[in-house]
Amino acid sequence: MVDPNTVRNVLGVIGNVISFGLFLSPLPTFIRIIKNKSVEQFKPDPYIATILNCAMWVLYGLPFVHPNNIFVATINGVGLGIEIIYISIFLIYPSWSKSVAYHKNSDDIHRGSVCRLQYYHVLFTVDIMKMVIKTKSVKYMPFGLSLTNFLNGACWT
């Protein structure tokens, strides 16, 4: 018989490795942004959603909130740091050709939840898919990102 803690630890390590790959999968995009000194048509929306998502999972994984979830807290802490770096790159190389309007929505402020963050994360991915279909180019949706998203979802389910 296999010890449940051993299984939990092995799956936690596998999940962390896949999640780390997921957080690093946009790296070629950001290398390109730095090289070109322009964000081109890339949007920061999915990275902002991921920052919020990681922050919520870090809070959930803290030992005093939910014991024995150190794997969740550590990988999402690492992901939070990586995503902050990505957003910093968007701030360093902004695209001023488009103006962005900011509208405060009180529903989002008062009813925010992990589920809503997950919804936004998926919504931004769908927005990118729309651009892929419209432009008939997968330039803005790297295969590595799609694959690691699939593996990450499969592992944590």
Automatic annotation (TrEMBL):
Membrane topology per the entry is: Multi-pass membrane protein
**GO cellular component terms?**
plasma membrane
UniProt keyword DNA repair present: no
What family classification does the UniProt entry report for this protein? Answer: Belongs to the SWEET sugar transporter family.
Keywords tagged on the record: Membrane, Repeat, Sugar transport, Transmembrane, Transmembrane helix, Transport
Q: Which Pfam families does the UniProt entry name for this protein? A: MtN3_slv
Q: Where in the cell is it found?
A: Endomembrane system
Alphabetized GO MF terms? sugar transmembrane transporter activity
Major localisation:
membrane
The name of this protein is Uncharacterized protein
Protein's organism:
Saponaria officinalis
> Per the UniProt record, which residue ranges are transmembrane?
12-34, 46-64, 70-93
Superkingdom of the organism of origin: Eukaryota
Cite the PANTHER family for this sequence.
BIDIRECTIONAL SUGAR TRANSPORTER SWEET5, RAG1-ACTIVATING PROTEIN 1
